[in-house]
Amino acid sequence: MSSNGSVVPRVTTRTLQKMRDNDDPITMLTAYDYPMARLLDQAGVDVLLVGDSMGMVVQGHDTTLPVTMDQMIYHAEMVGRATDRAMVVVDLPFPEGQIGIERSIEAGVRVLKDTRCHAVKLEGGAEQADRIAAMVTAGIPVMAHVGLRPQNIHVDGGYRLQRDTDRLVADARAAEQAGAFAVLIECVPSSVAAAITDAVKVPTIGIGAGSAVSGQVLVTHDILGLTTGYTPKFTRNFAEIGKAIGQAAADYVAQVKSGGFPSKSESFS
User: Which of 29, 98, 170, 244 has the fewest CB atoms inside 10 Å of its own CB, making it the most exposed?
Assistant: First the structure.
């Protein structure tokens, strides 16, 4: 529902395909809770990703690997309830997308049945084609994820730029042929992302992949200045909310300590 009470059409897989076909850039941001998802939805973000990145930006882990399926469902349920327009995609956390196709289908079914979310994201390309096809056959929309794969960090030996154009193009094509409605491309040279986008007809969403893609995704905490420590080269601060929160908390502490809060007008008589 829009601010004037009119019904807002929901973004769907068809919407995204039409945006790709019309060269209308797709916007995507992460969301992990109701208030943030509500704000992002009302701001006009096309797709919200309930990412397993929560393991790092919300839970304080060094990787995404500790995040569980139950945690994903908990956060996805909040985000799903907050949105009227945005499509909501939920990451399959490690190892739900790695061990047993039936397990992946069951995880995807949980997302669709237990939350108001609309699709899942699955890391991998050609080696995941059978899994993607089985999930799509079961009625679960799948966004593929190629390039840097955070769940593969220990195999890859860290977070590194992915440059193998032939392999990455093959991954994206295999995912598309298996039925993926979009492909997320992470941390590759711009030329590689352009080659992938040219090779497939479905939307491509880039993160650290340059501008020759169908759309962009970033971690919301990064663009708001809420991330502590390292921030990737490919992100941009659009606000310094972290500093504002810190200052507000410091002002509150000072006012309570000095007796300035609460005042008579902020108290009941």
Answer: 244
182 in the same domain as 63: yes
Contacts of 268 by beta carbon, 8 Å cutoff, 6+ apart: none
Question: Could you tell me the residue range of the domain that residue 256 belongs to?
Answer: 240-269
Q: 86: Cβ–Cβ under 8 A, 6 or more apart, which residues? A: 11, 37, 40, 41, 45, 46, 47, 48
Distance of CA 186 to the CA centre of its chain: 12
State both tokens at 77: 């349920």
C-alpha span between 173 and 9 (Å, rounded) = 30
The catalytic position among 106, 186, 240, 266 is: 186
Annotated binding-site members for Mg(2+)? 52, 91, 123
Which residue's structure tokens are 């047993």?
100
How does pLDDT run across 161-172, given as a tens digit for each residue?
A: 999 999 999 999
186 a catalytic residue: yes
With respect to residue 150, please indicate whether it lies within any of the assigned structural domains.
yes
Binding residue positions: 52-53, 91, 121, 123
Rounded to two decimals, the pTM is: 0.95
